UniProtKB/TrEMBL annotation:
Function: Cell wall formation.
Enzyme class: oxidoreductase
Organism per entry: Gemelliphila palaticanis
Gene name per UniProt: murB
Predominant localisation class: cytoplasm
Cofactor or coenzyme needed: FAD
Name of protein: UDP-N-acetylenolpyruvoylglucosamine reductase
Family: Belongs to the MurB family.
EC number: 1.3.1.98
UniProt cross-references to InterPro entries, sorted A to Z: FAD-bd_PCMH, FAD-bd_PCMH-like_sf, FAD-bd_PCMH_sub1, FAD-bd_PCMH_sub2, MurB, MurB_C, MurB_C_sf, Oxid_FAD_bind_N
Length: 300
C-alpha cells in the first residue's frame, strides 16, 4: 500500500480526494473512481506530485478539464491530477500572452477580447483546458494551436522544467511531441496580434453560433470522436454508412452531427467503446476507410 500521507505533506494548498467518482470531471459523465485525485493549485505542488509518483513507481494521470477523453468504468489507478486551478493568464509586451495549462479556452478568449488581441478566435468554443489543446494541437475553422504558440513549458517525469519552442513541439494534425514524451504541459506562451475589439467579438459570436447550430451541445459528449481521414470527413462517412442515431446502451451517434457521440441515458465507457468499434466496422464495410480514434481512452 502506498503511504499517500507523505505526498499530502509535500503539498501546499492543493485539494486531495480519495476514491473519487471521475464521472464528475468527465465531459461524457462516464468513468469509475480514482485511487487518489488531486486538484493541483500550483506548479510547485505539481512538481512534488511528479517526483513522488516517479520515486514510488505510481501511475500518474493528468486529466486537465476532462474533455476529449473516455475514462474506464474501472476508474484510474494511482494518482489522478486535475489542473483546472492552474489557470493564471498574463498579458506581456509585444502581444505575447502566457497561460497556465489548466485555464480553459473560453477563459482565455474572454481576456483576449478585453485586451483586443486576435489570432485565437478559431478556438473560442473548443471545450477543455489549454494544456489539453496543446497536447492534441487542437484546431477548428481553419486554425490550429501551432499557428499561435510561441513556446511551451513542461515538467518531465523527473520533475524537471523544460521549454520547447514551436518547432520543437513537432505539431501536426491532432499531434504534439507531448503525446510521445509523456511530459506535462504547465504553461503556454502565445504570440498574437492587436485587433479591433468589435471585430474579435463578432468573429467569436459567429463561430459560437456555428458550433451551437451544428454540434450536440445539449448532451454530454467527448467532442469529435474520430480524426479526419485524408480526403474525407469523418461525419460524412459515418452518415453515409447509416450510423447516425446508432445507439449502444446509453451512448448514441448524434442525430445532429454524426462526428459526435453523446451520452443520452447514463452511458458507460464500455457503451462508448462498443459504439466506436461498431461505427468503425460499418464505415469500413461501406467505404473501405479506417476511422482512427481522436478521443483518448484512459484508466484501468
Amino acid at each position: 500500500m502506498v503511504n499517500y500521507s507523505e505526498l499530502t505533506s509535500l503539498l501546499n494548498n492543493s485539494e486531495v480526494k480519495y476514491d473519487e467518482p471521475l464521472k464528475k470531471y468527465s465531459y461524457t459523465k462516464t468513468g469509475g473512481n480514482s485511487d487518489i485525485l488531486i486538484l493541483v493549485k500550483s506548479t510547485e505542488d505539481l512538481v512534488n506530485i511528479v517526483n513522488f509518483a516517479n520515486i514510488n513507481n505510481i501511475p500518474l494521470t493528468i486529466l486537465g478539464n476532462g474533455s476529449n477523453i473516455l475514462i474506464s468504468d474501472k476508474g484510474i489507478r494511482g494518482i489522478t491530477v486535475i489542473t483546472s486551478e492552474l489557470n493564471k493568464i498574463e498579458i506581456l509586451e509585444n502581444n505575447i500572452v502566457t497561460c497556465e495549462a489548466g485555464a480553459t479556452l473560453k477563459e482565455l478568449t474572454d481576456i483576449l477580447i478585453e485586451e483586443e488581441l486576435t489570432g485565437l478566435e478559431f478556438a473560442c468554443g473548443i471545450p477543455g483546458s489549454i494544456g489539453g489543446a496543446i497536447f492534441m494541437n487542437a484546431g477548428a475553422y481553419g486554425g490550429e494551436m501551432k499557428d499561435v504558440v510561441l513556446k511551451v513549458e513542461t515538467i518531465d517525469k523527473y520533475g524537471n522544467i523544460k521549454i520547447y519552442n514551436n518547432e520543437q513541439m513537432e505539431f501536426s494534425y491532432r499531434h504534439s511531441i507531448i503525446q510521445d514524451n509523456k511530459e506535462i504541459v504547465t504553461k503556454i506562451y502565445f504570440k498574437l496580434q492587436k485587433g479591433i475589439k468589435e471585430n474579435i467579438i463578432a468573429e467569436v459570436n459567429d463561430l459560437n453560433k456555428k458550433r451551437s447550430d451544428k454540434q450536440p451541445l445539449e448532451y454530454p459528449s467527448c467532442g469529435s470522436v474520430f480524426k479526419r481521414p485524408e480526403g474525407h470527413f469523418a461525419g460524412k462517412l459515418i452518415q453515409d454508412a447509416g450510423c447516425q442515431g446508432l445507439t449502444v446502451g446509453g451512448a448514441q451517434v448524434s442525430t445532429k452531427h454524426a462526428g459526435f457521440m453523446v451520452n443520452i441515458d447514463n452511458a458507460s465507457c464500455e457503451d462508448y467503446k462498443n459504439l466506436i468499434k461498431l461505427v468503425q466496422e460499418k464505415v469500413f464495410e461501406n467505404s473501405g476507410v479506417k476511422l482512427e480514434r481522436e478521443v483518448k481512452i484512459i484508466g484501468e
